[in-house]
Specification:
Layout lengths: L3 H21 L5 H33 L3 H5 L2 H4 L22 H11 L2 H19 L5 H29 L1
Helix pairs in contact: 1-7, 2-6, 2-7
Amino acid sequence: MEHKKAFFIMAIVMHLFPLFVLLAINQFKFNIFLSFEIAFFSFLIVIFSSYLNYKKIVFSKAKKYEYFQNSSIFFLKKIKKLPKNIKFRVIKDDLDFNFKDKIYFFTTFFSLLKIFAYMVLVAGFLFLHRQNLLNIFGYLCGISALLICVFIFIVYIRYESKKNY
């Protein structure tokens, strides 16, 4: 991630903005604040664990193509001729995966860190609910503030990539 500082600044701004709005309209209460904070930081753990998991997968897949990193552009743009004998295979349209593919996709999307992050999210919700401190508005604001931060970051990255090229 090249723009770590930008994401960090956006996360801080989106974290403080709803709190300032609640303070401005005199609705700042302890249960809203606690629900907001637990939701924000537990969802931040979920997003961070997803980022680490996908980063690991991308780097493991990139090791297969190590040859292309050291080769010159001339070899990469070389036009290859099609073989004279073309063999066709029958492909099933029902997308029935074998057991090995199912295990691979399961481990891709559910690592132990990610499962732990979701457990923290649920445990925070249950803690607030059992202590009678749960405020649904504050909890949803905590989750949505981070989602808005991620969407703003995606727009920022797209803008930066178009500006550089």
